[in-house]
Amino acid sequence: MSQMVRKMIKLEKPPTDDNETGGEHLTNPAQSEAEAQRAKAFAMLTIPKLYNLNETIAASLFAVATYPWELLPRIGDHIIELGRSLSPDRFIQTADNIWIARSAQVAPTAVIGGPAIIDEEAQIRHCAYIRGNVIVGKRAVVGNSTELKNALLFNEVQVPHYNYVGDSILGFRSHLGAGAVVSNLKSDKSLVQIKIADDAYATGLKKCGALLGDQVEVGCGSVLNPGTVIGRESIIYPLSMVRGYIPPDSIYKNQGEVILKQA
Questions:
Q1: How open is the CA angle 260-241-258, to the nearest 5 degrees?
Q2: Residue 35, H or E segment
Q3: Whose CA is closest to 131, among 159, 178, 162, 167?
């Protein structure tokens, strides 16, 4: 290796202290600002920004993660652990790893596969299909011909008419209009990324549906693409095709038109 090459490599090495350069280490202001903006954007994806953990029986699950999608592979095991601790005065274990609250209403035509927990006063209506790894919160509604798979529904969530929700977390009082579905697998089967502010966060997951914050409203016939994150109290217009991150308190009209709610 020539002396010139060795010199270039040495110059590219960042100084380890001020004495090495005879002064303070200079930083690129534009780069620092970009990194700060990136950190601020990703902070909006964290669990506290999306969910009130007082509104789920599975609050302890969230203690092990920073971002909600990190919990998706853990739902099934957590159900089994949590189910074994539930009081038989309040819950009936109807089959292996299936616990249903005594106050819940389950239609005789509904199908529930385990692991699953159906919390108190929830409604599982006619022809609902719960495929396993599912928690349905207190007073939640799983309606006619709705299918759930590897999903966590906070209290009072409503998925009442012809919905599909897979590999997803739906926050307190969030609601899917009739026929709204969550897509959890990309067409090319590649790993899902969470896109926000011209950047992306790699989930490492092949299947990752939607993460809905508390009190999100999704209009009828909408499709939430893999890796969609919707901030608290946002509204999605009917027949929307949604992907990426939608800020809290927003109204999503179409991909190019997302506005903040008026005070």
A1: 15
A2: helix 29-43
A3: 167
Q: What is the pairing mode between strands 199-202 and 193-196? A: antiparallel
Query: 19 pLDDT exceeds 80?
Result: no
Whether the model pTM is above 0.70: yes
Q: What are phi and psi of 197, to 5 degrees?
A: 50, 55
Contact 72, 61 (CB under 8 A): no
Name the least confident of 1-10, 29-38, 78-87, 228-237: 1-10
Contact 174, 157 (CB under 8 A): yes
CATH for 42-260?
A: 2.160.10.10
Residue 36's pLDDT is 80
Structural domain boundaries in the chain: 42-260
Q: Measured between alpha carbons, how far is residue 231 from residues 63, 143, 236 in Å? A: 20, 24, 11
